[in-house]
Design goal:
The protein is mainly alpha-helical. Helix content is 66%, strand content 0%. The longest helix has 32 residues. It is flat, with a radius of gyration of 22 Å.
Length: 125
C-alpha cells in the first residue's frame, strides 16, 4: 500500500516524485561525507605536519572550515534552489546564530581564563 504517508512516497525517486530526482540520494550523502572528510583532513594534516607557517595555516584552516560549512548546508541540509526559501533562510539564520554563540563564547571563556590564570597568580606549591 503506497499512500501519502508510506515510505515509498517519501523516498527519493519514490512513487510521489514520479522517479524524478528529489530530496536526496545515497550518492549525494556519500559525496558530502567524502568532501567533509577531505575538508577536515587537509587542515589537520597541514597543521600537524608544520608544512605551512602559522600565519598562513590559520587563514587556510578558516577558509576550509567555511567551505565545510557550505558542504554541510548543501549536501546534508539540502539548501539548494529547489527547496523552499523560507526554510533555507530559517536554517541559515539558526546556523549563523549557533556558530556565533560558539565562537564568541569560546573567545570570551579563553579571555577570562587567560586573565584569571596568569603565572603570577598561581599559588606556589
Amino acid at each position: 500500500m503506497e499512500g501519502p504517508g508510506s515510505f515509498a512516497a517519501a523516498a527519493p525517486g519514490g512513487a510521489a516524485s514520479g522517479g524524478a530526482a528529489s530530496h536526496a540520494s545515497v550518492r549525494t550523502y556519500v559525496t558530502g561525507f567524502v568532501l567533509s572528510i577531505i575538508l577536515t583532513g587537509v587542515p589537520f594534516g597541514l597543521v600537524m605536519s608544520g608544512a605551512l607557517a602559522a600565519a598562513i595555516a590559520i587563514p587556510v584552516a578558516i577558509g576550509l572550515g567555511i567551505a565545510q560549512m557550505i558542504v554541510h548546508l548543501v549536501y546534508f541540509l539540502h539548501m539548494n534552489r529547489e527547496s523552499s526559501r523560507t526554510w533555507n533562510m530559517a536554517a541559515l539564520v539558526f546556523a549563523v546564530i549557533i556558530v556565533s554563540i560558539l565562537v564568541v563564547g569560546s573567545l570570551w571563556i579563553m579571555a577570562h581564563m587567560d586573565a584569571n590564570m596568569m603565572p603570577g597568580m598561581m599559588p606556589a606549591e
